[in-house]
Each structure stands twice: as structure tokens, then as C-alpha cells.
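User: Show me a protein chain along with its predicted structure.
Assistant: Here is one chain, sequence first, then C-alpha cells.
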Amino acid sequence: MSLFDLSQQVSPWTAPFLNRVESRRHALQSPLFIDDLLSLASVPISYPPTSPDEFHALYDAIQDSPTFETVKRDSLVYYLLKAWGDEREKDFARMRTLPEAYRIVTDGYWAMDSGDVDVSRHATLRQRTQ
């Protein structure tokens, strides 16, 4: 299995996934953490990608970020890999030796963005990061 396998059978960015992301933005009435992080990284491409070409453009833009050092860029890629739901992000973290603190924070952002954590908690934490 390739970490970045984007074949139709395994691409995570299906219509239901894309709808859930937009529903979360609407429910929160604000951008997701990933939106803010991509903005801070000066990545001009929106999340989530809707095609393999968009994924590759997003990945390349993250890698070319002029404002994020390697560990932060790797954290963004780790976040993207979580969309597959098969723990491939853990293999990536091991290969890139992503520090545990960065994995924990990124897992928290993913949980809040995906609705695994209470929305009011998301809003409180979001205010602290701005």
C-alpha cells in the first residue's frame, strides 16, 4: 500500500467525506483548524482536495511552504493522511520521525475538525490559537 494511494477504490475524498467537511464548517460557523494551519503555512490551496490532482497540488504547496519548517509541514501531511481512516498516518509519522507532541496536537485538530470533540470546546480552543 502506498501512503498516497489515490486510486478510486481508496481515495478518501468521496462526496460524503466532502459533505461532512462542509457541514462541520457550517456547524462551527468558522474555518476548521486545518484551514487556519494551511493559511499560516502560506498554502494557497483549500482543504479538502477533491481529486488526485488537487491532492498533489496541496501536497506540493505544503512541501513548498515558506513559513513552516519540516516538522510542521510533516504535521500537515500527517493530518491529510488521517482522511484514509486506516492509520497510514502512523507509518508516515514513523518514517518521518514526527515527534509525539506534534502527532498528539494534530490528532486533536483532526478530532475537533471532524466532530469527534464537542463543538463548544472547538470554539474555545480556536480562540486560544489566534
